[in-house]
Amino acid sequence: MAQPFRVVVIGGVAAGPKIAAKVARLRPDAEVTLIEKGERLSYAGCGLAYYIADMVREQQSLMTTPAGVVRDVAFFQNVKNVKVLSRTEALEIDRGAKRVLVKSSTDGSQRWIEYDKLALATGARPVVPPIPGVGLANVFTLKTIEEADRIKEFIAANPHCKMVIVGGGLIGVEMAEALVGRKLEVTLVEMLPHILAPLDTEMALLVEKHMRANEVELLTNTWVEAFDGADQVEYVVTSQERIATDAVVLAVGVRPQIELAKAAGIEIGSTGAIRVDEHMRTSDPDIYAAGDCVETINLVSGRPVYAPLGSTANKQGRVAAIAICGGDERFPGVLCSAIVKVFDFNAGWTGLSESAARELGYEVAAGLVPAPDRSDYYPGKRMVMLKLIAEGATGRLLGAQAIGPGETAKRLDVAVTAISAGMTADQVSKLDLCYAPPYSAAMDSIITAANVIRNKIAGQMNGVSSIELGRRLDRGEDIVVLDVRSPAEYESGHLEGAINIPLGALRKRCGELPRDRKIVAY
Question: pTM for this one?
Answer without folding.
Answer: 0.94
